[in-house]
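Protein 1 of 2
SEQ + STRUCT:
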Amino acid sequence: MNMMLRRLSRAATAGLVAAAALTAAAHSAEAADTLGSAAAGQGRYFGTAVAAGHLGEADYTATLDREFGSVTPENEMKWDATEPSRGTFTFASADRIVDHAQSRGMDVRGHTLVWHSQLPSWVGTLGASDLRTAMKDHISGLMGHYKGEIHSWDVVNEAFQDGGSGARRSSPFQDKLGDGFIEEAFRAARAADPAAKLCYNDYNTDGVNAKSTAVYNMVKDFTSRGVPIDCVGFQSHFNSNSPVPSDYRQNLQRFADLGVDVQITELDIEGSGSAQAADYTKVVQACLAVERCTGMTVWGVTDKYSWRSGGTPLLFDGNYAEKPAYDAVLSALGGSGGPGEPGGPGEGTATCTATYTRTADWNGGYNGEVTVTAGSEPIGSWTATVTLPARQSVSALWNGTAAFNGNVMTVRPSWNGALAAGTSTTFGFTVTKNGSDAAPAVGACTAS
């Protein structure tokens, strides 16, 4: 597929996703039984870091697709991955994540444009003038490729030192371009994609301390001078030696009071059981208490692939089982139990039916629609399966969230789970035929 066709395909998907998001916002009071849907009900997103190499694992993608509404490429958009040689960009791995996210109605955070780490060796050999040009060209090339498709970019990452000095970190950019490189990067990013939210992102800035205050002073200066900055990301990597700060919410709020959004961008908390669950609850409650805290991202789907795997810091264990921390986060977001769980909606004898209609058709694909109808009792949620013929693939989905196991797509509601007796809702999807015009098979609908 050439670049123009990719752009057209992505634009069509983005339109479907936007329409679904608007509908979801209007129905945010509906019961929610996943992290993404519960957060959406609170006007936030809940996302995760994703590695392209794990998208072929069925349990990984099933958990990702079911639970999360936003994705951040873990390494695939960093400089060494996207521009290994000057002026030569490679997007295959990042495209895989973006395409997967868009086909399932997820937003994408871009991570990261300018960072001292994971740089190709050629960057460090440049003189100041060439480095400035290369930095701007990298921002323009990477953001230009995904223009209109990324809701927030980490424009500059980890530019301040740890410790009590609040000084800038030594890096090729700081050492050769000086303090002004951050402003230059943000101005270049605004020019590259005026619609994207532009964030500064860092770690150990979660509480009020010298490092966070240095970042605060920079953001305050930027906003006073009209430097384009829209958000500040707080990585929020916690453990027993670096616990959730008591002034975490206060710190988020002081940044929000500058007129920027705040985002929790790389959340993980080492530990287990009720202690870990309590710490996750503190983080979620802090975000919900700050109006301009727009969302949260955990840094990975499962403990076994975490960069801190020995500390079991995520919401799903190595077998993708929900941990107490998962239940705590879902509860803090106002979500309900899942199908068959205590407290879940619609336990009992509720039933539903699912019927399929092809609503549009063209040479290379078609749109399908499934109507889900509640039986003689109201239901709190539903699940429907769609089995695709061989060679066909789903390129977009709306009004539902999907998990894939081979050619079987299991769809659960995004906002439209609760149905009164006898009433209906629909979800739709776009299929790429790949030479097969056969109709998919819709399995039994399961109500809860």
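Protein 2 of 2
SEQ + STRUCT:
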Amino acid sequence: MKNLYAIINWLFLVSYWLLIAGITLRIMIKRRSAPSAMAWLLIIYIIPLIGIVAYLLFGELNLGKNRAERNKALWLSTVRWIEEFKECSYLFASEHSEVARSLFQLCKYRQGIGGLKGNQTKLITNTDDVMLSLIHDIGLAKKNIEMVFYTWQIGGLVDQVAEELMAASRRGVCCRLMLDSVGSIEFFRSPYPVILRTAGIYVVEALHVNLLRVFFHRADLRQHRKIILIDNYVAYTGSMNMVDPRFFKQHAGIGQWIDIMVRIEGPVATSIGSIFSCDWEVETGERILSSPPNINITKFEKEASHAIQVIASGPGFPEGVIHQALLMSIYAAQKRLVMTTPYLVPSDDLLYAICTAAQRGVSVHIIVPRYNDSMLVSWASRAFFAELLESGVLIHQFEDGLLHTKSVLVDGQLSLVGTVNLDMRSLWLNFEITLVIDNNDFGKDLERAQEDYISRSRIIEATAWAKRPYWQRIVERLFYFFSPLL
């Protein structure tokens, strides 16, 4: 009996160390940043069993077998669509401002498609205005309405949007709605999915979390895009979820969420629609990507035309392109750089680029909320403040709610607006979307919004920050350790 126990113990120990060695090899073989790899290795060696389980759940970008197969099958049709779209050469911008030229060239190389002209954009900074504009556009829809959101929460003006969407479906408009399983968990537990489906709306729960299959696809991979597409010609995107701030997370004690959205008319809507089509096919297996429509841009050619590039990220899309775009934008800045983000946990490259911009004389402003809905991210963000402040970066803490706007404005000309937070999850993991807009008039609109945020913020003084309690520094460094994983 003793020999049997000895053999079992020996087999257990061998299996245990082989498992750790196998996971170590997987971490080292996978292409990832050195800080991320070191963080995973330390977690696995310090708390082995918990660390191994955590890595199997969250350590690798795994779509799951079915989604991965659909993603692979989708690639050839997407390439054909891009080539067909590129034949409409009159849609593509040939001239860009000096600050934007290199970034648009990068996006063209990485994504296979250039920036589009003939677009008319409108920056909407008030949630009620977004909802009312959307309700109006849905009421005019004739062919199709497609939406994807991370969060949809019933209540307030959101219910009016839902009513208008159901009315559109009843009059024959094809309506598709895709919502993230985790972000919209309360919605899927409510009667609303049945109500919308009864009205003829296709409702899909994206990236559904199944406890029985958590080891077969990454559980924390999220559909974080916010897209509305109407008749393949009008589109909305930005930071706003389908929520009414007066009803959303009121118990959190952080105030109402502050967001922006961009309403677009023009060929960029077609590009955004192709991204939705890819997401829809990967999730459902249904192919809805059709040939690019014949688009007339002449009515905007006489006005201020906005050259726009759409950057999409997530599994199946060019890896790291949003990260590259942010780096190029920061290095292109010559006079003024303003960034707004609710979650500031930048990569080492981004941190270095921001600090370098301030050190070479660029006026750099970062606007973050003073109070955050994520304790982990809030503490991790503070670990970066000292280095930023020492470099001359001005950090403004927004005090009038949770500033959820994600934006970058370079020299008043080049704007980046979308769903991407300055953290590892947005930059390397989630399905995200960003608009790159090369237009001075739009830049002025975004600048006004950012100046309004600054007027409602408290600036952090470098001397005062250096005197913060020592225990806070310890907590900051503790959460900084997990920043590559956030």
